[in-house]
């Protein structure tokens, strides 16, 4: 399979799992929350996190069946964070992936609850023995814990609060690095690490390499995202260009200049790829790292 | 121990666990989210759900140590739902338990994130082996799943969306029963059932009796709450009297009349108590049921 074929394959598996997880017999009584959750969860997107979980699991000798529920759960957590980030009291965005944001379509109250529901459903999904009963209970607990820690106050939510509080203020490069590592890095790291755990590979060397790859990849990806907000094309980017500056966000290009940012993206990507040199088969993950920062897709 | 002594004892254990769970080394970098989470989680409250988990666990032969992390997690889920319910886009309430609501003190963005953080922390807490490593992995998974299902789209969040969508509309008694069973009943049922599971008692008779007790208790409690919104005293109730009618909420007294509601509270309480007749020691749970609907505390 080529890189894009494999990504499409993983995307299809993720979207099937999301469709299944976000349906219920209770839709007859209160359909709007399920519609709102599916609207955002199935609105396209690269499905980067699920791809990392499935690929790390595969490379470590696990099966797709073991990885899919956790891959879908990661995407539910990611989606809920976008819905809440877009709310009027947060970034107040009208567009996401080229479509009206959740609260623009369903109203604020339903958008808040749809976000809550997606976060909760992530845990329901990985704790359901119908999905994960084929794994040892200890493995499910360990991987679920990894997800919970990455998405909480000491992970993604910590990054979101730092982001809000630094709006319109000058912050240092170190603070911006911490903010981005928490806000987007933690979940990307969890995606890679969970893949290894689910395949039964929890030795410190394996998890350390996966973490190092994901940490570098996550930061490269974020800097590239900041660059696209300046240099990008709205038809590919899916949201208005220049919205970071408009929202008073401190970005890497603003702190370091665009030339240095392009260099840094290259360095971080090379570091990511180097971290996997002792991994059994890492061609797809190497290609993925290069692909994610080229963005000619 | 008397009823109130035991409730105080359980409350203290819950609040110690909450204080511990909502602290972090990361407070030095972004203190506001931890402050906001503790503000609402440690603002008093009856701690009914934790008391049910600890007491059902005790009655079924388990230890307090086994029950406390799940009791605290339940309270985090309950607290997050109150923070999000109070938001301007939801019920738009300024007071909760006699104090300004979370968004009034910390702003809307932080309140949304503090709610998210509390929900997430509930799962972090029960999945952390430092808290629950003394239990078999299968037991942790089963109890955590019980929590996740009760608080999700097919449980509490389902009730919240029904509540929002029925505002200002006429709904039937059956619909109101379903709404309340989901919105408040599911979490109360999970509190009782989790206590049994944590003590290693997962036979259908035990879980069925615990569910029946909690289902009747939850509904009685809700009807009593509706009555207090009409007949209550703001200094005891902690929020403005008459706010249900003002918010266009359909309540049991509006549908059935206050006289029938008082009768129903009595019947449901008696049913709750009767459900436990084969339980080993149920004096505290009997007293608790009577106490909760007397509200002379």
Please give the radius of gyration of chain A in angstroms.
18 Å
Mind describing the biggest β-sheet of chain A? 2 strands, antiparallel
> How many H/I helical runs of chain A?
16
Structural class of chain A: mainly alpha
Poorly predicted parts of chain A = none
Shape of chain A: globular
The whole-number mean of residue pLDDT values of chain A reads 94
List the helices and strands and how they pair.
The structure is a homodimer of 297-residue chains.
Chain A: H1 3-21, H2 31-41, H3 48-59, H4 64-86, E1 95-96, E2 99-100, H5 102-106, H6 108-127, H7 129-132, H8 137-151, H9 156-166, H10 173-198, H11 204-231, H12 234-237, H13 243-246, H14 252-256, H15 258-275, H16 283-294
Antiparallel strand pairs in A: 1-2
Helix pairs in contact in A: 1-3, 1-4, 2-6, 3-4, 3-10, 4-6, 4-8, 4-10, 8-10, 9-10, 10-11, 11-15, 15-16
């Amino acid at each position: 399979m080529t890189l894009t074929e494999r990504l499409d394959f993983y995307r299809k598996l993720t979207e099937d799992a999301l469709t299944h997880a976000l349906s219920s017999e209770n839709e007859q009584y209160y359909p709007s929350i399920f519609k709102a959750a599916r609207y955002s969860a199935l609105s396209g997107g690269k499905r980067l996190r699920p791809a990392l979980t499935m690929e790390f699991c595969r490379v470590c000798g696990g099966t797709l069946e073991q990885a899919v529920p956790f891959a879908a759960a990661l995407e539910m957590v990611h989606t809920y964070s976008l819905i809440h980030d877009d709310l009027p009291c947060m970034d107040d965005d009208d567009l996401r992936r080229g479509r009206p944001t959740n609260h623009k379509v369903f109203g604020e109250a339903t958008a808040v609850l749809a976000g809550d529901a997606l976060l909760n459903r992530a845990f329901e999904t990985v704790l359901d023995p119908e999905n994960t009963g084929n794994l040892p209970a200890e493995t499910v607990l360990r991987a679920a814990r990894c997800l919970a820690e990455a998405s909480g106050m000491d992970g993604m939510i910590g990054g979101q609060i730092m982001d809000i509080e630094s709006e319109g203020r000058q912050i240092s490069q170190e603070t911006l690095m911490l903010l981005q590592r928490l806000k987007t890095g933690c979940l990307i790291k969890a995606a890679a690490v969970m893949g290894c755990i689910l395949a039964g590979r929890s030795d410190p060397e394996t998890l350390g390499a996966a973490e190092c790859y994901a940490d570098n990849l996550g930061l490269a990806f974020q800097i590239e995202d900041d660059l696209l907000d300046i240099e990008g094309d709205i038809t590919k980017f899916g949201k208005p260009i220049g919205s970071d500056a408009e929202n008073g966000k401190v970005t890497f290009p603003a702190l370091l200049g665009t030339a240095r940012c392009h260099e840094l993206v290259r360095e971080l990507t090379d570091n990511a790829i180097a971290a996997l040199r002792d991994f059994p088969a890492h061609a797809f993950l190497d290609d993925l790292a290069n692909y994610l920062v080229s963005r000619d897709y």
